[in-house]
Amino acid sequence: MATSPKSPFSNLPAAPTAPKKPVSDTYHGITRTDDYAWLRADNWQAMFKDPSLLDPEIRKHLEAENDYMEAALGDTAALQKTLFAEMRGRIKEDDSSVPMKDGPFAYGSLFVTGGEQPHYFRTPRDGGEKQTLLNGDKEAEGKDYFRLAGIDHTIDHSHGIWGYDDKGSEYFTLRVRDLTTGEDLDDILENTAGGGVWAPDGRSFFYTLQDENHRPSKVFHHILGQKQSEDRLVFEEKDPGFFMGVGGSLLDDFIYIDIHDHETSEYRLIPTSDLVAEPKLVAEREEGIEYSMTEGGDVFYILTNDGDAKDFKIVEAPASAPGKENWKEVVPHVPGRLIISHMAYARHLIWLQRKDGLPQIVIRDRTSGEEHAIAFDEEAYSLGLSGAAEYETNTIRFSYSSMTTPTQLFDYDMVTRERTLLKTQEVPSGHNPDDYVTRRVMAPAHDGELVPVSLLYRKDTPLDGSSPCLLYGYGAYGMTIPASFSTNALSLADRGIVYAIAHIRGGKDKGFAWYENGKMEFKQNTFKDFIAAADHLVATGFTAYDRIIAEGGSAGGMLMGAIANMAPEKFAGIIAAVPFVDVLTTMLDDTLPLTPPEWPEWGNPIESEEEYRWIAAYSPYDNVTGRAYPPILAISGLTDPRVTYWEPTKWVAKLREHTAGAAPILLKTNMAAGHGGKSGRFQRLEEIAFEYAFAIKVAGKM
């Protein structure tokens, strides 16, 4: 019988106590009182752009929380350094992508030894000297935070648009670079969503602007040399519940305006032969109907769930008349086969699908209609489909990995079906796949569904209930967590910790119905599935309840908050990164960036009492009560526009007030970053090392 690990925390100073300043609201006759609402900065829009504007009282509290966190985890400093060194040692520092051919050049990116940021380059098409287009390390000099949005070149390869965010608030500045001289033009565009789409003439481009509530609501047309204030407004989306993006077709015949929330979409097209034309509506938005487009010469191929095609189908329509009345099915809907994305080239239509929980790439000859799928051998794996940058091609590119197999990059000839290995991910410090085991087990859920769980552990790990386990989950927006290779997870496996991913409802791991049954009124299935995964891992000897550390971020942080309330006794510790835990309050605040677009995911508690009650039943912040919570580590970013810093700050204050146990509740606020944490590749490793050090300490493996 395994003995329980002792509490690793002792002799901590007094934890910060946030003052109570009660604020009440009433909806549908239901009144709530929030003692910690004051932690939400009234000037949050301005503060995201200039963090120095943060209210001094709030700043003082966040800094006190950081000090307390340091006191609780200070003894992990050496472990963090060790973990960081291990993780860094598995990364090829001077790594380079395999350039992708586009016209007379091939474009790629690389990192230099010691560098934090990518460098973008090009070579002559068939190889030759690299020309650096953008040196991310140089651009980031002197900045606490810096994130590049990449660089997009004109058709004639003379200029490039590049963007950056230097605060973590996801307001991007766009610049235009002369790719011959390497000098930037005077054009500076502020508060964009990042990136733009060139017109074929190479003298103008389209971009989206973020409004004061951080929503990309307007598309503008910018002509080189003019001021941003002179840019022409092309289209404005008036509904705050919809996001908007702008893109281009591979043949450069159209500019796409993509308008969408989480379950409804609409496209408008601008022919590049007439850049001032009114954007043409393809198919009017219908609630619950999604579609996306790719050009195939004289036709569009459209991926859609229209007509009860829950797992999606592909239709085609004339490029001259792409309206819904002209849609003709070319790839039928097959229940249980979820089509994720599609691409079209001169002679082939390809799509990425998921069937039986595993991804597949399928290729169809556009003339003969003959189809084939690219075959793989492993039990569980991950695929990435990058396609090609040219329309006239028979060659596409994809990546493959599993939890034990490092990423491999292939070129694939769609005619001969020959795959060419271009690159295998190097692990400089060494990696022997035979030392590890990857498995997929099925955990019975409360209603009889089977929840897939992917596992990675060393072959010599005891499976008698004595091994710790880091159990990761997300479960929202239909996002699937792939069973891919992670050099970071090896640091856990090498310490005898089982690394597990619970593929819970709310994702599309088992098709679109898997997503539907983990959202809105069915959201609690997500939380119950995660607990069921923990139960199954205990029942089958992989771990024990007092050895499971749960981890999730963003919407997965909501999951962490929910399971902390529902089954705190089943977890030894919880890591909640940028956790969306104040769900009801956020969904009641329609001024926040993501609130209106997210009502189809969670419900609209302003308009509907029923939906208010759904959310109120699980919202982690609203369901904190007196119970013995395990050690909890919450992590946030001050300028995060997605999950605002005050959500985890309020949650920690309330948890600490109500916990009936002695376990510490910790908060780390990154005062110079947003939703994704620090921006540099090694800075990010420092954050992962910090999270893993908490898990290892809680697991008693220090």
TrEMBL record:
One of its GO terms (molecular function) is serine-type endopeptidase activity. Keywords: Hydrolase, Protease, Serine protease. Residues 1-10 have a biased composition (Polar residues). GO terms for biological process: proteolysis. Residues 1-26 are annotated as: Disordered. It comes from the Bacteria. Pfam families: Peptidase_S9, Peptidase_S9_N. Residues 484-700 form the Peptidase S9 prolyl oligopeptidase catalytic domain. PANTHER family: PROLYL ENDOPEPTIDASE-LIKE (PTHR11757:SF19), PROTEASE FAMILY S9A OLIGOPEPTIDASE (PTHR11757). Belongs to the peptidase S9A family. This is Prolyl oligopeptidase family serine peptidase.
